Amino acid sequence: xxxxxxxxxxxxxxxxxxxxxxxxxxxxxxxxxxxxxxxxxxxxxxxxxxxxxxxxxxxxxxxxxxxxxxxxxxxxxxxxxxxxxxxxxxxxxxxxxx
Length: 98
Ligand SMILES: CC(C)(COP(=O)(O)OP(=O)(O)OC[C@H]1O[C@@H](n2cnc3c(N)ncnc32)[C@H](O)[C@@H]1OP(=O)(O)O)[C@@H](O)C(=O)NCCC(=O)NCCS
Known about the structure:
- This protein is α+β, with helices and mostly antiparallel strands.
- It has one domain (2-97): Aminopeptidase (3-Layer(aba) Sandwich), CATH 3.40.630.
- The protein has helices at residues 39-51, 71-79; strands at 2-4, 23-25, 61-67, 83-88, 91-97.
- Strands 1-2-3-5-4 form a 5-stranded mixed β-sheet, with helices on one face.
- The site of coenzyme A has 17 residues, from α1 and α2.
- Coenzyme A (COA) is lined by residues 28-30, 35-41, 66, 70, 72-73, 75-76, 79.
């Protein structure tokens, strides 16, 4: 899923500041049988290409979060240029400049 927060923080007071007027990649899931075949990386690449068309408005960043124990997700996102910006509960937030 891809979200764009218009600055209303999706009515979620716990949403991080980076969520405002930026894009959010959410719940990337590849079928267990198909993991490790490059689909995750390709999906993130295509999602970023789409986000860069700014379909819902301009933004400086795309952000996402992942469980701090999810090493596969962490490795995938960092290899694509995302940078970690801090933790919230058990998740790590990461951003990439658009
Ligand atoms: C995380 C997830 C989306 C990655 O998608 P994927 O198709 O399996 O990943 P890819 O095949 O594109 O590989 C991406 C990188 O992770 C590495 N990787 C993939 N599976 C791995 C595994 N089981 N162990 C270690 N590394 C792994 C690949 O080697 C690759 O690194 P490289 O580019 O240096 O070669 C997928 O595993 C998934 O759906 N997991 C369960 C749900 C989840 O955790 N989603 C993320 C929520 S934020």
